[in-house]
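Homework help board

Subject: predicted structure for assignment chain

Our instructor gave us this sequence and asked us to write out the predicted structure in token form, then describe one feature. I got the tokens but I'm not sure how to describe them. Can anyone check?
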Amino acid sequence: MVVVSLPLVVYYICKVHYIERHGERYSEETRYQMARKCIGIMMRNGRIKTESFGQELLPKEGGYVMYSNHQGKYDTLGIMISHPKPCTIVIDAYRSKLPITDTFIDLVQGSRLDKTDMKKQFKMILQIADEVKQGRRYIVFPEGGYDHNKNELQDFMAGSFKCATKAKAPIVPVAIIDSYKPFGVNSLRKVKTQVHFLAPIFYEEYGGMTTAEIAEMVKGRISSTIDMQLSRRALERERAS
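My token output:
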């Protein structure tokens, strides 16, 4: 996929650098549509299909924070191609400096979280919360890492939910399935992933809870959705055989 897409990758890297030099000319909507166009090209060249569900449940107005399980490098791309309105991502500052990733984060104006400096980390959380109050939409992966996660959930870090609690913003659980396959399976076969946007959890519901309790609640809803979808798929295979 990288080899086939290389000419376009070079073109868009140069274009993003131009946008960064003339940022005032480009709205968040324009940047986001360019990002989705890049994702679409990579999906086509990589023979990747993403099925999405629950867009009608997304809050119609204002900012919110999407909390998703984490499986691999394709996770953000799958969510963004499924999310019609502009959104961005919170990413580990170290990982954000990887080739191509760095340019992509600049394009969508993502937030880089320095996990080695608590003061910088807290300051960034406050900044993200303020942006959410102003209407921005963020993707957060509360599991942190994704090595060998596949469709199994790991512990959700309670601190990651402070972005939403400090903004008193809706929390949107997102369940992704088979998202580890596009960049984690050595094969030329077609790959299909799923993105499920679940019903938002509003501040009125979680305001009296600790971040640890919120983390468990969100993890439970995502886990239930994944289990249901995998059980349904297993049943369909059994019937087909």
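Reply (TA_rk): Your tokens look well-formed. For the description, you could write something like this. Strands lie at 48-53, 64-68, 88-92, 111-113, 137-140, 171-177, 191-197. That's the kind of observation they're looking for.
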